[in-house]
Please model this.
Amino acid sequence: MNVLHGVVRACGLVKVHGQGPSRVRAVDTVDLEVPQGETVAVMGPSGCGKSTLLHLLSGLERPTGGEVWLADQRIDILSEQALARLRRRSVGFVFQAFHLVEELSAAENVELPLLLAGHSWREARRRASLLLERVALADRVRHLPSQLSGGQRQRVAIARALANDPLVVLADEPTGNLDTAATLDVLRIFEDLRSAGQTLVIVTHDERVAATADRLISMRDGMFVDDTRLAGTGTGRLGRLIGLEG
Ligand code: ADP
Ligand code: MG
Model:
């Protein structure tokens, strides 16, 4: 793995959406390097290109210009098939609206990416059970998403994102639909991931989420307008925030 050059890298990244008068440069010449184990928060007004950026970094969308690298692999030039494979194995994506499969139980939702990556049923079940324990849902494995709270659904989605031990977890407003208690549960999980050395990029509107990151990037009109290293340890910051919550 290319630790020296960061787990996630983008150079001169551009994404143009639409045509003619509705043409918009959603991402406008962005350079980014995220080292192994770093937690980066990305903030900015609605429509400034945050989701597009995450989609480009995960290979969900292709850039109009520039390069995207995951570890030592340039991903924007891969075939559809190779890209799908890489996304499945190397990227964990967490959505604001959870995007769980409603017909499948919590455990089955987590097993799915493991089976798609070629693990046996037995191994998938074993690993899903460990992951659901890790997000404190050991007692909800057989529940359907409709039988879970928003916070519990998001924890299942995080377990699913972690299933194949991804190089990076990308989260798009992961607490946007959650109340304060559920937000703090999700923050605790991100803290745990961070301590375990997981590389994380989190798009958020929530100051509490941003405050737990190592680094805060501000975006406007598709560009990075600020990139600041935050002081102190995440755990210390989260501890203070929980203290503030009383
Ligand atoms: P954010 O996540 O910061 O709210 P987005 O990345 O969703 O911003 O959108 C950035 C800009 O690109 C917005 O102007 C949005 O309307 C536009 N956009 C996003 N996706 C598409 C698309 N598929 N087609 C056309 N325009 C899009
Ligand atoms: Mg968005």
Observations:
- The chain has eight helices and ten strands.
- The pocket of magnesium ion (ligand 2) is lined by residues 50-51, 172 (CB under 6 Å).
- The mean pLDDT is 93.
- The helical segments are 50-58, 80-90, 106-116, 121-134, 150-162, 180-195, 207-210, 234-245.
